[in-house]
Design brief:
Number of strands of chain B: 3
Distance between the termini of chain B: 6 Å
CATH topology of one domain in chain B: MetI-like fold
Order of helices and strands of chain A: HHHHHHHHHHHHH
CATH superfamily of one domain in chain B: MetI-like
Largest sheet of chain B: 3 strands, antiparallel
Largest interface: A-B, 46 and 44 residues
Shape of chain B: globular
Strand content of chain A: under 5%
Distance between the termini of chain A: 25 Å
Shape of chain A: elongated
Helix content of chain A: 55-70%
Strand order of the largest sheet of chain B: 1-3-2
Strand content of chain B: under 5%
Structural class of chain A: mainly alpha
Oligomer: heterodimer
Chain lengths: 358, 334
Amino acid sequence: MAVKAEATPRVTSLAPRRSASLWADAWRRLLRNKAAMLGGVIIILTFGLAIFADNTVIALFTGEPVQPLLAPASYETQARSEHDAVPSWMTRLFPTMKPQGTEGGYVKINDQYILGADYLGRDLLSRIIFGTRVSLAVAIVGPLVALLLGVSVGLLAGYAGGRVDNILMRFVDVMYGFPDLLFIILLMALFRSTTSAAQEGTLRALLTGIDNAMGGMFFIFIGIGVTAWMSMSRLTRGQILSVKEKEFIEAARAIGVRDRRIILKHIFPNIVGPIVVAQTLYIPQYISTEAFLSFIGLGVQRPTPSWGSMIADGAAAIRTYPHEAIFPALALAIIMFAFNFLGDGLRDALDPRLKGTS
Amino acid sequence: MGRYIVRRLLWLFVVIFFVSVITFVIGRALPGGPFSREKKLPPAVLKALEQKYNLDRPALLQYVDYMGDVFIPKIIVGEPSESLMEDHLINIPVAGYTFQWMNFGPSYKSQSRTVNDVFRENLPVSFQLGSYAFLVATAIGLPLGVVAALKQNSIVDYLAMAVAIFGVSVPVIVLGPLLIWLLALGTGLFAPTGWGSLRQEVLPSIALGMSSSAIIARLTRASLLQVIREDYIRTARAKGLQERVVVIRHALRNSLIPVVTVMGPIFAYLVTGTFVTETVFGIPGMGRYFVTSITNRDYPVIMGTILLLAVVIVIANLIVDLLYAWLDPRIRYS
């Protein structure tokens, strides 16, 4: 948050020092929060898993063929004969499972699969590890889109005021009335249905091509982005309205600082805290939205693994092969906990009302 | 107040207009007509079918027709007809006439059924599930929040808030399979799938209601903590009222007002949450049918469901806002 002092030394030199110490304070408080730190560590580890699941990154530079690095196998590798196989320790965890050879047994025992295999004989652990990519991509892109769209609309509405504000906010109101999840479902139904029907050379074909290359994540980003920006624009607008009337803004305007500069250098640093906190707290929601979409079959495309679609596959056979739903579900729960802990910690650290209490 | 309600109702129409336009446009943009089959129908048959379902007319007229069928109430003489094109969700017979409302048209996938047939068969189950989940959410959330606030910073408080964090972090698609595994398959006390008996209904209701209970618990705690520090609570204590009376009559009643505001979003969440819950637990409700109709590309069902739910949710939000004003006389909408 370094802000250079130029035309108005008195005003600008005050603002940055205060905001710098605010952030340093917040950081110190965050470091002391054990739950938030645990969440942060889990998130960093998961990022490691996502990046180094295979050596895609290495292959980009060296041109070596892509092979599993952290994951035991590729997420596509099927062994038809090994479908629903489980390691021997798992029959103790799930007593309802009966190994083949026992009376009425149906489960193949194969200790090569640490967490068992799914209904196509794909290694479950590998698919869970590759599944981190989808969830974390959503955790990054969701807030990015929400920030880009939401903050710019909010900035515009809040700063311009008057008719611009009115039109933009009425639009947001209408979109707000439309339940988020239903809107995303409808959009995804549209996106997904066009996959096969797209004509060569059209925009639709281009977008579908991008989507296919990303395993179906592109349309999920759009779907989440389209619904995520609205609450962000409301929050930004509200923050701006409260900051706009402060004396230091008036002072800046009085000495002839241009609008663009006032917004970027004076208003923005003062509203960035609540916006960051809000977005961190929204991340679990984005992750669960993606999982939900993949669960009902509108999310990522097969064979790209998403925890949501894995749970859906597993739920279909939960009586006989509970592990196929339980383990992806646990993975999803862990990452949701981690982001919730971190978000809560961040809010406590940045909430000015808690300042000086400890 | 009256003017506020009128304005909100007008606003309701604006929202429904946009929702319906978006739904309709996307519905029409979806490729593959309702009668495209693996085996192509003869052109003459196709033409006759399109004529029958009014699909040969311009899109704008189709929209007006559709909206008219859904939203404009009709009064006919005598009994409602059996025709697939004239199947209304709401039929109220009054002295030889029948008042009809909400005709969502025929389903394209199963030609002998209408969207309303699907609604009639599946909505009651979803409604039950949603209501039970709401009961669970309140029955767990409220006491948890109250206890946590009254014993602030005690073990009870921390436990209650841990439950709350658990609730918001664990979505239905996670909690569902876990509950089935632990409580249905593990103990055999509950049935893992189906609907209709108590054994089957407990787990889905908990799975769906849990995250809402967490939201209610957090909000109740925060709100009660704030109210309990108010002057009038000190006054009530000072004049020697029993602690129980102070908490229940004075503090709790006022602290519940902000909790009402989240009822709107919670309602919307429960409505869409049934989609997942019903799929996980194999419950024959609207949510599961909706998911199937996405796979089947049964667009009239998709559009009808979304339109109906959107209207219900928008109205629910309006009711919550009015309830809020009624509960807290300090709030005056104008």
